[in-house]
Amino acid sequence: MTRSVRIHDFGDANVLRIENVEVGEPGRSEVRLRIRAIGLNRTEITLRSGRSPAKPPLPTGLGFEAAGVIEALGPDVTGFSVGDRVALVPAYGAAQYALYGEAAIAPARSLVMIPDDVGFTEAAATWTAYGTAWGGLVAVGALKAGQSVLIPAASSGVGLATIQIAHRLGARPIALTRTSAKANDLRHLGASAVIATTEQDVVAEVKALTGGKGAELVFDPVGGPEFATLAKATAAGGTLVVYGALDIRPTIVPPFEIFARDLAIRGLALTALTRDDPKLASLKQFVSEGLVQGAFHPTIARTFTFDQIADAHRFMEAGEQIGKIVITL
After folding, report:
1. 95/33 Cα distance (integer angstroms)
2. In Å, how far are 94, 129, 283 from 39, measured between CA atoms?
3. Helix (H, G, I), strand (E, B), or coil: what is residue 203?
4. Please, what is the Cα angle at 142 between 197 and 235, to 5 degrees?
């Protein structure tokens, strides 16, 4: 038996229960991990709260991102050994594997080796953030050197990864944040410019920063009424990539902006990319090269112990962090 988080009802962080469960042996193309760190993501909070369109049968485990040590291999798993230190690239649903636990089954195709000089906490903070940012900027957004990208919710783990990937591509990351309280931190973490959306005219600021043309790419996890403002700040022929819905209000799509200036709106789900073998391989290669060359370095906002999992969820929901939240075991 091992301790694992399960939910019996959808709701606030109080529904998270740590229970004793039997993990069992890995099946074909699976491994069993001793979990050392868990990366927290909005995906799990959306599912836990009941806001997600995907509602698994209850009770259910949770988990989207983790790092640990291989304890057992499925019968057909090759390329890995018991004792290997590995992290997971999410290519599955947030309730498909119970990664919120001291041990868990995980798919072998999602594994990446952790370099000797990288700790479990950093490894668990890497692959969702950089994988999502790679998907938005490279796989879907086709961002090019010299172009600008608008990054709402820029202080999140994905936002900070987006800043670093934009620099690696030779593009200009423009960070959006609600107030100026995080502006200096965002500049220190690589943002070329910072716009406080509740204090400044977003469209006017973007136009001033881009010589009047607007940003070629918008990478938005928020949606809501302000999506219309982002469309107005997008360059003619530009693309808006939507990968979240943090604002629970209806999203406003301005039709005249879209058709008059030939804007494209694309959706992005990381797992839709990573379920494709060639795309998963490309993601692993791109992020691994950035890590080895020192271009990518995840920012850890705060760590919590496993017994503090509900507190970690509450901390993320407060929205004050800069970087990733990680659970350590």
Report:
1. 16
2. 12, 10, 18
3. helix
4. 45
Structure tokens at 205: 């600021």
**pLDDT by residue, tens only, the chain of 329 residues:** 899 999 999 999 999 999 999 999 999 999 999 999 999 999 999 999 999 988 999 999 999 999 999 999 999 999 999 999 999 999 999 999 999 999 999 999 999 999 999 999 999 999 999 999 999 999 999 999 999 999 999 999 999 999 999 999 999 999 999 999 999 999 999 999 999 999 999 999 999 999 999 999 999 999 999 999 999 999 999 999 999 999 999 999 999 999 999 999 999 999 999 999 999 999 999 999 999 999 999 999 999 999 999 999 999 999 889 999 999 99
Encoding tokens for residue 236?
Answer: 């003619």
183 vs 180: CA distance, rounded Å: 5
Q: Is 316 helix (H, G, I), strand (E, B) or coil?
A: helix
The two beta strands, 103-107 and 111-113, are unpaired
| Token pair listed for 34 | 């001793």
SS3 string of 88-134? Answer: ECCCCCCCCCCCCECEEEEEHHHEEECCCCCCHHHHHCCHHHHHHHH
3-state secondary structure of 24: coil
Count of Cβ atoms closer than 10 Å to residue 209 Cβ: 18
- Beta strands at 264-267 and 234-242: parallel, antiparallel or unpaired: parallel
Number of Cβ atoms within 10 Å of the Cβ of 280: 17
Name the 3-class secondary structure at 85. Answer: strand
Per-position b or e across 219-242, b if 16+ CB within 10 A of its CB: bbbbbbebbebbbbbbbeebbbbb
218 within 8 A of 234, measured Cβ to Cβ: yes
